Amino acid sequence: MHEIYFKLALGLEPDFLFPLENVTIAQGRDAMFTCVVNNLGGYRVSGDSATARVAWIKADTKAILAIHEHVITNNARLSVTHNDYNTWTLNIRGVKREDRGQYMCQVNTDPMKMQTAFLEVVIPPDIIYEETSGDMMVPEGGSAKLVCKARGYPPPKILWRREDGGDIISRNGPQGKTKVTSLEGEVVNLTKVTRSEMGAYLCIAANGVPPSVSKRIMLHVHFHPLVQVPNQLVGAPTGTDVTLQCHVEASPKAINYWTRENGEMIISNDKYHMTEITSSAYSVQMRLVIRNIQRSDLGGYKCISKNSIGDAEGNIRLYEMELPHRKSRNEEEGDAASEESNDVRSSLQGPLRESGNRVEDAGFLGGGGPPASKSHRLLPHELFLITALMYAVLDISL
User: Fold this and answer.
1) How far apart are CA 231 and CA 226, in angstroms?
2) Would strands 78-82 and 87-92 be described as parallel, antiparallel, or unpaired?
3) Beta bridge partners of 205
């Protein structure tokens, strides 16, 4: 009774104004706990002339860190600040994983008063390169095992994606062949790999603590060249330019070139222009432009592709295409005059025929009937009449 009276006479008992809050902080950042205590200044500790004090304690190890503003522990990263009224702040600079745990703000009343909060130290993800796959090469139809491991706290999750946005193909599941745009887990097993699966795979590690990290793993699929010819027979008029094309798929990268059918290699010059257009990681389009083609340029051409695994070729035959001839105006006028001359000539040379008791020249004398379907042998009197008629015509014209 006397003890309680003594305390009340000196003032109210200390009390915490706000609860101590938990702190989650990334490793390397600064953390702080703030403890607000009211009615501490005039309170005397029982049996002691000293006023009550605030102390900071690491609860899980029971180590005293600081009393009032004086740091007890041998840790240069710790400090305590006081605002000369009711607030005490514990500061931890550049927190480390070992700083994680329960922290206590304690007032040495009788009985003791205290409140606790937890310091969680999180660590951004980091790829463990010595345990993660590097770029790899596999033959087409073979298998590939991609491994990616990362450290951090909380433990990171691993997500796989293709850099080009393509599907990741799994053939080991209970459902057989499946295609997904992303896959979770440290290991990706690829079986019966095809050339379409070639490319960059991204291993992304994330645990909610920024930044996320990733590693790029290049998967090379090797196979011998394949040559496809869209047009094996190409026609063009002489004097024009023509383009020959071949599509090539090969990995590793192939050496591509053109030859004539006799094996003569073609080189770029004023006559020939060769280009390659990349379509994907393993395919290109070969183009050969032949300028101002002549008859000597006609014939067979070969597109050839060679890599360390094998070779392939495609064949194209170039032939001359004749354009339809368009007549000039002079030629058309000449043809018209020639047709008129032929008409006159044919009228002069029209067949003779007998009509009743007179004989007419079907063309010259205006006879309109068709020619006789078959010839007959002229009688002597008929020959006489024809001869007389011809002499009469000649006399008139003279």
Assistant:
1) 16
2) antiparallel
3) 158, 213
Q: Quick one: pLDDT at residue 307?
A: 97
**Rg (Cα) of the chain, in Å, rounded?**
53
Name the token pair of 366.
Answer: 């205006």
Q: What are phi and psi of 161, to 5 degrees?
A: -140, 160
149-186 pLDDT, tens per residue? 999 999 999 999 999 999 999 887 667 789 999 999 99
Compute the CA torsion angle 177, 183, 188, 192 (nearest 10 deg). 20
pLDDT at site 347: 38
C-alpha distances (whole Å) from 36 to each of 88, 106, 229, 270 are 6, 11, 83, 89
What pTM was estimated for this model as a whole? 0.67
Helix (H) or strand (E) holding 36: strand 31-38
The one-letter code for the residue type at 290 is I
Both tokens of 293, joined, read 């083609």
Instruction: Give how far Cα 117 sits from Cα of 33, 222, 353, Å.
Output: 8, 59, 136
Phi-psi region of 356 (alpha: psi -120 to 50; beta: other; left: phi over 0): left
Residue found under tokens 């993800």: 125
Contact 312, 254 (CB under 8 A): no
Is the pLDDT at 368 greater than 80? The verdict is no
Residue 205 φ then ψ, to 5°: -110, 130
* Polymer length of the chain: 398
Pairing, β 113-127 against β 136-139: unpaired
Eight-state DSSP code of residue 141:
T
Phi first, then psi: give them for residue 6, nearest 5 degrees.
-60, -40
Nearest alpha carbon to residue 320 among 233, 232, 238: 238
Give the per-residue pLDDT at 344.
39
